Amino acid sequence: MIGENFEGTCTSVEVTSATDDCRRLLYEKRKELSDAANKLKNGLSKIDETREKVQTMSGELEEARANVAVFQKQCEEFLVIIVQQKRDADEQQKVQRTQVNNSPC
Q1: Rounded to 5, what percent of the chain is helix, strand, coil?
Q2: Alpha carbons 13 and 100: distance in angstroms, whole number
Q3: DSSP labels for 27-45?
Q4: Cβ atoms 5, 11 nearer than 8 A
Q5: What is the DSSP letter of 103?
Q6: Quick one: CA dihedral 25, 28, 31, 32, positive or negative?
Q7: 64 exposed, middle or buried (CB, 10 Å; 0-12, 13-18, 19+)?
Q8: CA 26, chain centre distance (Å)
């Protein structure tokens, strides 16, 4: 019975091997966790950067909307002027035709 390996007992080689396996597994899991944490940190950083850009763009959009409203009003005013000038030109042309047709030549 001396030197026999009974069920439930471990040799020092088996304990060392199991410890090495546990250390290797612990290292792998720590590495995986560290990589996942870095990925999360980078993702959150990108989200913050994007949020800042969106805020900046929102401000620029409001400014652009205000400019568009001003330009649209100016365009409408110019259109009114153009239509009036066309009416005046048409009327003037009509008067000239009437004068030419009524001239005693």
Answers
A1: 85, 0, 15
A2: 124
A3: HHHHHHHHHHHHHHHHHHH
A4: yes
A5: S
A6: negative
A7: exposed
A8: 40
- Between CA 82 and CA 76 the distance in angstroms is 10
Confidence class for position 103, pLDDT limits 50, 70, 90 = confident
Give the integer Cα–Cα distance in Å for 41 and 97. 81
Locus of tokens 């199991």: 18
Type of residue numbered 35: D
Is the backbone of residue 77 left (phi > 0), alpha (psi -120 to 50) or beta? alpha
pLDDT tens string 4-44? 555 667 888 889 999 999 999 999 999 999 999 999 999 99
DSSP annotation of 48 reads: H
CB atoms within 10 A of CB 84: 10
Measured between alpha carbons, how far is 23 from 29 in angstroms, rounded to an integer?
10
